[in-house]
User: Fold these one by one.
Assistant:
Number 1:
Amino acid sequence: MIKFTNEELKIVKKLEILKNEAGSHSPSVITFKQKLPEVSIRVDACFLSNPYATELFIEYFNKEILSSGKIRDLLESYPSQNGVIAEILAAFMNINPKNIFIGNGAIEIIQAVIHNFTEKKIIINIPTFSSYYEYVKDGVEVVFNELSKEDHYTLDIGGYISLVKKHQPDTIVLINPNNPNGGYTKIADVQRMLDELSFVKNILIDESFIHFAYESETYKLVSLTHLVERYPNLIVLKSMSKDFGVAGIRAGYGIMRAEYVAALLNNGYLWNSNGLAEYFFRLYTRRDFALKYEQVRVKYIMETLDFIRELQQLPWIKVYPSMANFVLIELEEGIRSTEFVAKLLISYGIYVRTCDDKIGLKGQFIRLASRSRQENEYIISSMKACLAMNRMPDLIHESVN
Amino acid sequence: MIKFTNEELKIVKKLEILKNEAGSHSPSVITFKQKLPEVSIRVDACFLSNPYATELFIEYFNKEILSSGKIRDLLESYPSQNGVIAEILAAFMNINPKNIFIGNGAIEIIQAVIHNFTEKKIIINIPTFSSYYEYVKDGVEVVFNELSKEDHYTLDIGGYISLVKKHQPDTIVLINPNNPNGGYTKIADVQRMLDELSFVKNILIDESFIHFAYESETYKLVSLTHLVERYPNLIVLKSMSKDFGVAGIRAGYGIMRAEYVAALLNNGYLWNSNGLAEYFFRLYTRRDFALKYEQVRVKYIMETLDFIRELQQLPWIKVYPSMANFVLIELEEGIRSTEFVAKLLISYGIYVRTCDDKIGLKGQFIRLASRSRQENEYIISSMKACLAMNRMPDLIHESVN
């Protein structure tokens, strides 16, 4: 059991209020700084983002936008329309621009697709990213496919295909790797699913964490975007926030059948990219940037693997298998996740996501992001100390505070 | 008649293609640079934006974000959620935060409101900003109220109220001042309308250009936002792009009844602000910024008045009355607007909006934005030369080229 001083208990109360206000998501660090100034965040391990990619982007941004004075254009002028940015991506990704929809973050595309194209029934694997069920319109039936704890919350593809055939939904969602556990479904299994489920109108595959997954020892990028022409019911969504470390920019894309892109653009989404996002998308498609990005992507994957190995050595926690840049951790021995999260934050300045609000998880869970190597080391040593505290007799514990 | 060399004619053709691709809006300057590099834009008089406000914003941005190194946070981290930013605005605007919806540009709010709350019939004054009729859902009847050329395209409030009573729409739209002509409806008239039209479910007032309008000699700001509590059917929309000169940031807000805000946030729009927009909104509510902004707002209004007076002196054009930062100009003596726009662009690098695609305008029209004093002077002298060319005999004209 984790103990708190009276001062700390006050902060715990405030933390709970802040979390409730943010609904099924975590309050942002900016909101945090404003509303809970007594807590100083040293490591944001709630935040799913490659810090080395952020550094790379800032290096380009400094050189090409700030030093050149182009920043004024970027702030002052209207960015290009959706279709213009789609064209830039199309050439790079070798996809017809008519199949590309640019989003103000992937979440705008989740919203657009689910509001416009999901009419009757949606099947969602849980645990999941909550917006997938929160954004459905009134009258749409939501069927939850509870991933099995015994299978480490990974998808049993055969059972899933049978379930979809039984329920006959118009929309299914697969986040790959999944959030919040990082469970990965191999491309071969996804293709089997696509082959067997051609009757489903919308198969949403969310590849927001796909840059951290791999099927070969060289960590080669995997993706399904090229299959949209072959499977017209496939919709691939991609946030750029995580792998490129630019959540503040709000950039994402969706690859989907041309009729869907046309329908969306026909009555909306014209100028939904800002100047920073347009610069990012142009950079994303450049060979010089792509080569450097590949280096920081692989570097981060390798460090994340080290981080996970270290976590697996810690006592009283269970680390679930992950192919993403985060891990789902189950706290054992009666440790409560809200208390553990509060202690890490108050005593160590480490901001971690509690998973209490995640439906489909049975137990005390937290989700921990991999950060820079230095930050990961700090997380490991703090977790160690925090977990050790749990085992200390009350007397010693109280004198520590 | 305006003449072109063969080289120029090729550019004119490309211009037409570019304009067609952009639909009922103008291609952005970035798109322009990319697709028509042979034309160099010296003054973007298509662009409705206060350049002095842009300078003020950049001054703050340099000092507070770039020099301090906070730029990394802004690019890397998730911005605050919609409701958190609404709270910041609420305190400044003295409006309940439950009535504030933050948009990724005003256009996102136009789309959200019209998609979600307009069910049957909408009345739109024309000429107008095209998204208002383009974004209506299938099955919604659009009634155009054609503003009268004889009345200089200003709104006859009495006639308008009668028309709305006759048609019984669920939504009406008033852009005030109107785009593309700048026609202004006084607050007293709008209030009369609100009093008489309580049966209309949604009265949309678009105040995107309201900072350029005034009813007193001190140019004091006018606005209807405070009336939302009194008239629950009033929805005030506001783009920040024009008056604050930050179109690249994508920032806007809507003031509307709490049920509408709740309905929108209930299934979407959670992280629709980017890091730059959040910084802008926080700045917008600060007294030090507000005081400086007021100075550049009034400065720009006064220069715009000078600009309009100069334009009124030019031959062969008719300048329509405007309370915005642009004027609608009718070309006379057989001058064609596409040709005039092409000539200004090719020979003088001045980018002006043709109004050929604006329904409800009868004649050859362009819309001309007020820019900095220096740019306005250049626009005037170039217009003069361009108009004079129209009167030159063909022989002389050809030898000039």
Number 2:
Amino acid sequence: MVVGRSPELDELFRPTSVAVVGASNRPGKVGTSLFRNVIAAGFQGVAHPVNPSWKSVSGVRCYPDLQSLPDPPELGIVIVPAPQVAGTIDELGRAGAKGAIVISAGFREIGDAGAALENEVVARARRHGMSLVGPNCFGVFNTDPSVGLNATFSESLPSPGNIAFVSQSGALGAGILKYAASERIGFSRFVSVGNRAGVDENDLLAALDRDPRTRVILLYVESLANGRRFLEAARDVTEHKPVLVIKSGRTTAGERAAKSHTGSLAQSGRDQLYDAVFAQSGVQRVDSLAGLFRLAKIFSSGLALGGPRLVILTNSGGPGIVAADAAVRQGLELPFLPEAVRSALTSRLPTIAAVANPLDMTADVGADDYRRTLETLIESPGLDGALVIATPTGTMTGESVARAIADARATTRKPIVACLFGVTDLSEEATYLESQGVPTYTFPEEAVEGLGGLARYRAWLDRPHLPVRTFAVDRAAASAVLSRAQSVGATVLPEYAARGLLEAYGIPFPRSALARDVEEAVRAGDGIGFPVVLKVASPDISHKTDVGGVAVNLRNAAELRGAWERMDRSVRAAAPSARIDGFEVEAQVPAGKEVLLGIQRDPSFGPIVVFGMGGIYVEALRDVTFRLAPVRPLSAQHMIESIRAYPLLRGVRGEPASDLAALGEAIERISQLAVERPEVVELDLNPLIVRPAGHGVTAVDARIVLAPPSDSGTTV
Amino acid sequence: MVVGRSPELDELFRPTSVAVVGASNRPGKVGTSLFRNVIAAGFQGVAHPVNPSWKSVSGVRCYPDLQSLPDPPELGIVIVPAPQVAGTIDELGRAGAKGAIVISAGFREIGDAGAALENEVVARARRHGMSLVGPNCFGVFNTDPSVGLNATFSESLPSPGNIAFVSQSGALGAGILKYAASERIGFSRFVSVGNRAGVDENDLLAALDRDPRTRVILLYVESLANGRRFLEAARDVTEHKPVLVIKSGRTTAGERAAKSHTGSLAQSGRDQLYDAVFAQSGVQRVDSLAGLFRLAKIFSSGLALGGPRLVILTNSGGPGIVAADAAVRQGLELPFLPEAVRSALTSRLPTIAAVANPLDMTADVGADDYRRTLETLIESPGLDGALVIATPTGTMTGESVARAIADARATTRKPIVACLFGVTDLSEEATYLESQGVPTYTFPEEAVEGLGGLARYRAWLDRPHLPVRTFAVDRAAASAVLSRAQSVGATVLPEYAARGLLEAYGIPFPRSALARDVEEAVRAGDGIGFPVVLKVASPDISHKTDVGGVAVNLRNAAELRGAWERMDRSVRAAAPSARIDGFEVEAQVPAGKEVLLGIQRDPSFGPIVVFGMGGIYVEALRDVTFRLAPVRPLSAQHMIESIRAYPLLRGVRGEPASDLAALGEAIERISQLAVERPEVVELDLNPLIVRPAGHGVTAVDARIVLAPPSDSGTTV
């Protein structure tokens, strides 16, 4: 990352002078279309082509080199062969340029030789303090009429609008722009980040957040430049503007393709980390390009839902039902209509109409029924928005119902979304409705998808903004455990040490005591309370059950004595040379649900908390969820609720609910440990027992892996 | 259902003479647009308007009544008010009509009075042996130029094509026709079935199967007229033609809306039965109208995939990756390219291109590279079809690449599907490609969705056509159990009787013996083999554990004696008046996985087999699946594989696999019982223990409910 002079990145988006190095007149060359685009888009600054081979390019005086330019270029656009790019950057820097967009390919994407060239380009840009876009990219545009910059080689420039688009794939960006132009979708800014040697999506999120012309930000990425920085950057932006992302390479095949495409790090099975970072930053992930535009359209309209309560108004039952199904899938609510609304409508509508939600007015109604009914519905405080489905009929033309909907729209700030069923998105009626602030879709389920996006964004904005909790933990004890382990070079903590570290962070374990003889064990059992577990304690025995070193469910002193004797014999016979520190007497863990809670680390995402149902659920069903640490209280709760086996924790069929509050706190405490103890590279509580509500959690088995001494403290 | 003279339903689809009763000239009336449509569509027979109010309709001589017609009408189209419809049907019948399409509304959908009118209409049609469509419907069309029938009041008639569409929602049908007309989607036939008092989707499936102009059948239904008949009808059709369905009302909200819309039976929570019937009949269910058309387009092309192995060819990495992700979601395979293909291509493509799958030729290639590469790929025996993604670039126009793809298409019968990325579906290039047999989509994921449909249909056609297995069961013993229970009027079978019935059908239970004294019990234990379970046997004790009547895991004779004494005391104390037949000694069930297996019955779907993981999985996670009985071997296997917890049965982390063969057989045996014993209205094996492979299954607990004596044998 090479960030420029300002977080706004004005040197890239609002340059007053531009030099296109490698501009050309030869048909089919990138330098030809690019310079033509710069000129044709109505650039408000001054643009100079630079190329020793031409006297003029597209009719504009061409200069042989950067030194000859009459105006110092604020932004350089570079289309020269890869080996010449570093030199060009230097010249640009010397000429005073603050930014460079390197279109040229032949860098990291082609292997080591290219990577070396790319490193050199970055070094030069850094030396001159220049913002760098690319290399290997499709360019940048800004449709702001006071700038008029089209520094791409796109054939089609979309109309001005309020959608910003950042793409890691140049050709995908190009295709999208072409599509958008034909569908009349307006953009504010576009950046193809290419190899991201300089500016990346994180820098751009911050810049686009500050752009008053941008209302919604679209990202296409195949990997994140830095997962942790993305979390921070996106979390800021989504407070002001919705961010929609396609992260492709979700499947192994897709990932293989993405890897070969971008040369990015393999992140096998890491797709859930992307889900985590998007969930924690309020970014909406979509899986399809078509879906991206369905959401972009509604966010672009500037409409906002106050809540999830939707009414569906239709003159045709079938599409209403399809929409109702889709609404439920999108997490929207279709409340029963408030009594006031019902009585107001009953008098007006044909007797055959069912005053329900969806409200099917039947095919007999006219455009005016639409207007009046919609006005009645939308002013009800019990409804947050409306989906209007209208199939033009003999009694009602598309034009008249479009006008009726627009009239109703004018009376409210609540979103009204339309599906003129049977009429395409590009029809006159749809165009008219959209001009009147009514996003319009061809199919009802698509309209609902858009409304679902608004509802999710509303829920994100309205979430309780709870800070990360920091618990008072026994830092001295924790540090003592860790430095002791590090002093002997241990990377896997012994069980008692793992327990010590976790107890220091407030994770409860069963009460236990080390007994050196049987009488001490019985006293310990009395103190802890029966039933108890007896375990051999020896630094030389790692698999206790193999030597008969574990006895469970000892209900009283007599059983404890019997177990002691049997264990003593069996352990000494099986492991005659082992040093025996004594036998551990431990409270039998009471019944509860087994969950898994752990820490992992990732080079891009940093410390990660993992949570899932324990035992077979983890192994066979992969019912686990991830969040980047630190985990806030709300995220901890979402983790618990997001696993498929959540009903088992919530309690079913009269079973008591588990102690979800204690479980949430345990997640947050483990998150705190992950953040405060970078030397812990892996931690597994499996199982952690979650007892019934009010009875807390108890860890049973803990495994902790430390970074090798040399790495200690440097792991992200 | 009133089925007409022929399974082809020619009286509806190919009439030689038509009478439109209720034809009109008044603008905005259904009778006006309908008669105009009949005339305008180029009807090849003779059409007469019938209405005493007019001398002529749309310029055609109008008759006051049916008796006055110069030609006997083969088909009547009825648009008169509801109370006059029955009389009109009578007149049509007397005039020799073989079919009637009743457009008029005001029947079952408005309540009891309407239902009475509808019953009368049905009775009259039946009396005359007429086929009846409707009432409350939007009509019928057939675009066959030798017929040219448009008996709908649609504003737009789609172009002729090979897609047939059957809709339970008239207005939805109308919207679809309008949409299709603007998108140049061609239809063969259309039927709005309305209230389905006569012809229903099952009759139409059979008729459309026989229509040589129909290549793919689309259904929109809110409920099935008869789930069981649908299974049979659809299973036949899908051997010849793909059937795609939207069954709306999937969610509770949608179902509520559907119920109020169609007045159909409430079928709460029955959506999984629809999934079952579609899976068993090879019908592809889609959730969105847009998705329905994406599939219809590719099936309409007549292309077929020979297998799931897809190659993706692109000049742009991003869309290729999006397509790869989508392909995996659709169950398609993206094999590594065969060596012969790799070496053939390596010499030809730019060095920067990765010869992988997706094959990204990079933006530098031209149209001719597309043609040659595509030809090389598609002739490889290791690949079944190709998705070509092309983003028009400076080096390649949309037109040239479209031509290149079409040229390659001409060399093969394998499907080639295109995504001209950035170019809309209605562009000239897309239109040209589709005319050349290359289905073309705007977005890569949509193209993949189409290919996924082809692959699923191929898998359906290629499935092993295994017959229903009929096991040699002990029918005499089963009948004895049932008649004994029925003779005493029992509806819930006692445990031993349930066991007897199930054992007669080959479902194993643990070995057991009734012991009358403790010595007999010990002998039984020796015979069965320890460990054993001891249970009180009494007709008066239904909850044995409540009275201390169950002891498990008795490891030897001594423990059995002890348990006998304790149980004897405890049961006599807790239930002093209970008759005690003795104590049951039962083999302890060895370890295994607990599953649920059962029978349910449904008025529309008939006998149903239910399968899922047992215990908490059923209660909390609803991890169950359904199939209509009889269940074939393949369906039994699909049931096992389709539950989420399937990995637990298949075996994970070195755990042995469960005995899936025995489990499949148990499913089929239960299915046989369901079919042969209609008096069993409910059956639950919960749990059935599935032991490791080779060790079979063992039932532990069985609950069987019989129909009340009066119903016996009549339950579907």
